[in-house]
Write a structure and sequence with these properties.
The complex is a heterodimer of chains A (104) and B (182). Chain A has helices at residues 3-20, 60-77, 96-103, and strands spanning 26-35, 41-49, 86-92. By secondary structure, chain A is an alpha+beta fold. Chain A has a single domain, classed as Alpha-Beta Plaits (2-Layer Sandwich). Chain A has a three-stranded mixed β-sheet, covered by helices on one side. In chain A, helix 1 (3-20) packs antiparallel against helix 2 (60-77). Chain B has 182 residues and is an all-alpha fold. Chain B has one domain. Chain B contains eight helices and two strands, in the order αααααββααα. In chain B, helix 2 crosses helix 6. The chains are: A alpha+beta (104), B mainly alpha (182).
Chain lengths: 104, 182
């Protein structure tokens, strides 16, 4: 599998997973290449989340299933690719503008 | 309170320091603390297994604690997190059931969660401590600290699990220690 094919598969997997977790608050998942602490290639996800009513906060237990599903989806894209290291960042809708300003 | 528990509590406290607009430095320290909390909790469990709970073993326990390395621990965590991380050899034979047509990973789900958390938190800590371009949302920091706490709860449930004992041993030694007898 080429890199182009791999990343096409990863993006499709993100679309699939976000559809499954829309009710949990996720509305977009963006993947990008990333290097783990050992300098090995990996995938990093940015998960965009709807704000919770009344300044509520997300708990890990609500989103752990989403991360597990992302890991499964990645393995489905290429079962032989063993360099996957989970790294996921989460951004709330209300934080999007601040993040854009910070990373631009 | 143990060092691991104190680090976890400190991470939560850092998240609550700025109710309106969180300071990046506090989020970075919270993420780093969330990793070190789990790092020290695992080492504490492992060294307890070596020296027992006797008060007199404190000096030995502290000395053994310094033998653990981040790199070896994360390599072991990857092996337990997914069968994809397993190198061919005796450890793979213990953790992978190859008697069926499609081999299955024989690691309790709580331990898989702990191993995944360790890998993710180490990556996050590395970035939080060294990548000056990184930006953190409160949600990310909160979820990482929550992930560390969730791993603590899973470890509580694993205390008498033999696979967890093997995990703790390999965190110290790495898989290289397991060689078939000639």
């Amino acid at each position: 599998m080429t890199e182009v094919e791999y990343w096409k598969g990863v993006r499709a997997a993100c679309t699939q997973v976000v559809g499954e977790f829309r009710a949990a608050g996720a509305y977009q998942i963006d993947p990008r290449p990333y290097e783990d602490t050992a300098g090995r290639p990996a995938v990093r996800f940015t998960v965009w989340l709807k704000d919770k009513p009344g300044d509520g906060e997300y708990e890990w237990t609500e989103l752990s299933a989403l991360e597990r599903r992302l890991a499964e989806a990645l393995r489905d894209v290429d079962p032989d690719r063993s360099d996957y290291t989970a790294y996921t960042e989460y951004v709330l809708e209300s934080e999007a503008a601040e993040r854009a300003a910070a990373v631009s | 309170m143990s060092l691991a528990d104190a680090l976890l509590q400190q991470a939560w406290d850092l998240l609550d320091l700025d109710p309106r607009r969180p300071k990046q430095v506090n989020l970075r320290r919270a993420i780093s603390g969330a990793y070190y909390a789990l790092f020290h909790r695992l080492i504490s469990d492992a060294t307890y297994g070596v020296t027992g709970g006797a008060t007199s073993g404190g000096a030995t326990r502290d000395a053994v604690a310094r033998w653990f390395t981040h790199g070896r621990m994360v390599a072991t965590a990857k092996s337990f997190a997914s069968s994809l991380g397993l190198k061919k050899g005796p450890v793979r034979n213990l953790l992978l059931d190859t008697t069926t047509a499609s081999p299955t990973h024989r690691v309790p789900s709580d331990l898989v969660d702990v191993a995944n958390a360790f890998v993710a938190l180490q990556n996050a800590r590395h970035e939080a401590d060294y990548d000056l371009t990184a930006w953190y949302s409160r949600a990310t920091a909160r979820l990482l600290v929550g992930r560390s706490e969730s791993a603590f709860h899973a470890l509580q449930r694993l205390q008498h699990d033999p696979t967890y004992g093997l995990f703790l041993l390999l965190l110290l030694t790495g898989e290289e220690i397991a060689r078939p007898r000639e």
